[in-house]
Every structure is written in structure tokens, then in C-alpha cells.
Amino acid sequence: MASLKSLQIVSGLLTFVLLLTQLLAHAHVVQAENIDAAETDRFCYPESSKNTRRSCECSNVSASPWGNRALRIDCSYKDYRSADLSLVLPLYIDSLDLSWNALDSVPILSSDTLHQLNLRHNNVSQLVAGNFKLLTSLRELYLGWNSIGRLEAGSFDGLPHLQVLDLAHNNLHLLPGQLFAPLLVLGTLDISWNRRFNESGEDLYTGLGVNWKLSTLRLDACNLGDLHLPVNAPLKELSLRRNQLKRIPAQLPETLLRLDISDNLLEELLPEDTFNLTQVRQLFIEDMPLLQRVMSNALAHVDVLETLSFQNSRQLSHLDAEAFGPTMTTSTKKTALRSLSFRGTMLRTFNSTLAPLFTQLAELDLNGLPLQCDCELVWLKQLPVETNGRCYKPARIRGMLVTSARGDAFSCDTWPRWAYGLVVLSLIALSAAGIYLIVMGLRPHRGVTMRRKVGAGSPYARVTIEPNRQENPH
Ligand SMILES: *[C@@H]1O[C@H](CO)[C@@H](O)[C@H](O)[C@H]1NC(C)=O
Ligand SMILES: *[C@@H]1O[C@H](CO)[C@@H](O)[C@H](O)[C@H]1NC(C)=O
Ligand SMILES: *[C@@H]1O[C@H](CO)[C@@H](O)[C@H](O)[C@H]1NC(C)=O
Ligand SMILES: *[C@@H]1O[C@H](CO)[C@@H](O)[C@H](O)[C@H]1NC(C)=O
Predict the structure, then answer these.
(1) 322-348: b or e for each residue (b if 16 or more CB lie within 10 Å)?
(2) What residue owns the CA closest to ligand 2's atom 14?
(3) Lowest mean pLDDT among 15-24, 53-62, 427-436
(4) What is the C-alpha separation between 374 and 208, in angstroms, rounded?
(5) 181-239 per-position pLDDT tens digit
(6) Residue 71 C-alpha to ligand 3 middle, in angstroms?
(7) Which atom of ligand 3 is nearest to the CA of 231?
(8) Which residues contact 403 (CB under 8 A, 6 or more apart)?
């Protein structure tokens, strides 16, 4: 009995202590929250812009599974200049959007929680050393759509956790050596649309110090005439759209999974273009202004390719029967290819040696091709997928889907054209000869005429005039 009572007392005491600690903790949280709130207000609703559209939107979200607090601040489209911003960011800030303002330099902001900073669409023309060094937790930095042309060495110092760096649509040209070296875990780098980047002359990896383990690199519209990247760098995605490349660069990382080489100056796709792309699963050869031919074996080495697109390469008019390798292998080999697009090209026909390959596809896009629907192409009707290919010739089925046009309309002239010519010519010759013969046949024969003229029955025959015996009776 006594022991039960003491147990009850102990448990009561325990509950009390527990309650007390909870209460204290709560008070502490409330106090901290009050401090944050004041600080947040100072940043989000500054005195100078109270009750105007220039105040930022601040929202609390609970990020991460542990329910840590995180503050997202959206100050986009506010016409802010650098001097308008408070440099110390509120506690718990996670992301700050300063896009579409009028910042002409990057303010040296300070926060040890900020993960994402968006400065796109401002008027920043240069970065100075240590520009981001007080943002020690930064993971993503978006600096696209400015006019950054000058970067001091050390511009990216103090960003050991940065994973994504966007420098697209700027004016990068001469860059200090080892510029990117402080970015130890950088995974994605976008330098697209820096039209003078070809002048930088430095090798990205050894010269500019890009993280060896970079996985995504974008170099669209950088006026590149050639490119060498280390073969053994573990790069996964590379975009080289809209450059001045005449061949697919021979030396690219072996690990590439996705390559976009669209809108470059290739005229033909050759076997050496794809020879080293042994791991590529997605290959984009779109919008090529000059590409006319895909030569035999041009795509024979890309065994693991899943997606291939020639979309909108408007000069492309020849796809070799053996573009995907010798006929023998295409008919037996199981390829990984699932999606193939020739949309908007000038291809008229496909050799039936491609049938086994096309039959495996889950997607084949033939929209807008001027297809020549003759007996060579009738196999296309048998494909299990809808290609949206339409006949352009012959004229009587123009515009009809290959699948809905009648099979017997896909006919070929069994004789070659010159044979028709020959037949017509010989017909003309024959009838000429016939007419000649008829004319000759109808014309009176000279011998016959003479005989008739002087023959016995002819009125012109010789007559003998006998004397009139009645008038001279002797
Ligand atoms: C952008 O900066 C340049 C100088 O770098 C200046 O001449 C120009 O007026 C600025 N534009 C805006 C919209 O502030
Ligand atoms: C960069 O590209 C421009 C435009 O194509 C060209 O005029 C210039 O010579 C190139 N510079 C280098 C160093 O390749
Ligand atoms: C493939 O890569 C190797 C190693 O970089 C290179 O020597 C070779 O020329 C490349 N082959 C072709 C056909 O480009
Ligand atoms: C299709 O390709 C094979 C093998 O290259 C070739 O012999 C044949 O003539 C081609 N057919 C047509 C209609 O071009």
C-alpha cells in the first residue's frame, strides 16, 4: 500500500517537472519568434516603403522533415537599387528572390541559412572578390540575364556548398584563372548566351578550375568553333546549342548521357561524329540550318541511345539505309531506341531496311514530311505507332495520313521513265511508217497507168480508121 502511494507521488512530481520545462521552452520559443518577427518586418516591410507595393512578400514554410522553420522572401519586380536593401538578412531565411529589380551591383548580403539567391534580370555588370563570402550556406545562385562582363579573381570565394551556378545571358569573355575553383561541389554550371565566351580561351577544367565532378554544363550560344573537354570527367549532360560547330567535338567526356548539339553548322552526320558517344541516351540534333544528310553508320555506335531528334532540321533530305548500322545488324539487333523524331525535316522516303528498327519504337514523329507514298514506302503503313506522316506525292492522295491512305494507292511505275519515252517514240515511228505505207498504197502505180492509157480497152487505144464502104461502093 505504502509503496503504491510513494509511486503516485513520484509520478505526480515527474509530471510537474515535465510541465514546467515545457512551459519554459515555450516561453523561449515565443521570445525568439518575437525577435525574428521584428527582424523579418524590418526586412520585409521597411519604414521607407510601408504600405507601398515595394514591400517584399515574406512567407514562412516548414522545410525539411524535422519541421525546421524557413523563411522565403520574394522581392521581385520592386525597382530596388542596391542601396535600398538591408544587408543582414533575417534569421531562418531560406530563399531570397531579387529578380527583375534595378540592382547595378550585387549587395554583400550576410546570412548563414540562405540556400537560394535569385538575382536574374538586374543590371549587374561586375562581381567583386568575396561578393558572396558571407552567404556560407548558399546552394543555388542565379545571376542570369544581367550584363556581367568583369569578374575579379575570388568572386566566388566562400561558397563551398554551392551546387548550381547560373551565369547565362551575360557578357563573360575574359575570365580570371581558377575563377570557379572555390566551388568545391558545383554540379550545374550554365554559361549559355555569353556570345563572347569563345574569347576566354581558357580550358574550363584546368584553366578556370571548374569542379571535376560537374554533372551538367550548358554552353549554348557562346560562339564556340571547337571544344575540348576531358574524356574522363564524369559529366552527364552537355548542351552546345547554337554555336559554330562544324563537327560534333571528338573529345568529350565518355560518361555523357545527354547531348544537345542542335543549331550548329554540320552539313552531314558522319560515323566519326558519334564514334565516342558510347553512353549517350538522349541526343538532340535539332534546328540544324545546314544538315542535309545522315550518312551510313552515322548512328551505328550509339547502342544505348533512347531518344533521338532531328526535329526542324529543314535541309535534311537523306537518311542513309544503313545510318543505324549495316542492314544485317539492324534487323536482328535489339536497340534501346524508343523515341525518334524527324518532324519538320525534308525526308521523302525511308528505305525498308529501317523497318525492324522503326517497329521497336514507342514514338516516331513524321509530322510535316513531304512523303513520297509509293511502293517503297508502303511498309510504313504496317508500323504499330501513329507517326502522323502524310503523303505529299502522288497528288491524288496528297495530305492523307499514311495510315489512312489506301494501300493500292502506294504504287510504283513498274517501268522506268525512259521506257515510257521509248514506247511513245516507237508508236510515233510506227504510225509514221503506217501512214507512209497507206499513202504509197493509194497512189496509182506508174506501170498500171501506162498500161491503162495504151491498153486495148483504153479509150486512147490505137484505132484503125477504115474507109466507108457505103460511100465508095466499088
Ligand atoms: C545599367 O547600367 C549601366 C552602366 O553599367 C547604365 O548605363 C544603365 O543606365 C543601367 N540601366 C538601368 C536600367 O539602370
Ligand atoms: C568568337 O566568335 C566571333 C563570332 O563568330 C568571331 O568573330 C571571333 O573570331 C571568335 N573568337 C575566337 C577567339 O574564336
Ligand atoms: C575518340 O576519342 C579519342 C580519345 O579522346 C580520340 O583520340 C579519338 O580521335 C576520338 N575518335 C573520333 C572518331 O573522334
Ligand atoms: C535500300 O537499301 C539497300 C541496302 O543499302 C539498297 O540495296 C536498296 O537499293 C535501297 N532501296 C532503295 C529503294 O533505295
Answers:
(1) bbbbeeeebeeeebebeebbbbbbebb
(2) 198
(3) 15-24
(4) 56
(5) 999 999 999 999 999 999 988 899 999 999 999 999 999 999 999 999 999 999 999 99
(6) 50
(7) 5
(8) 381, 386, 387
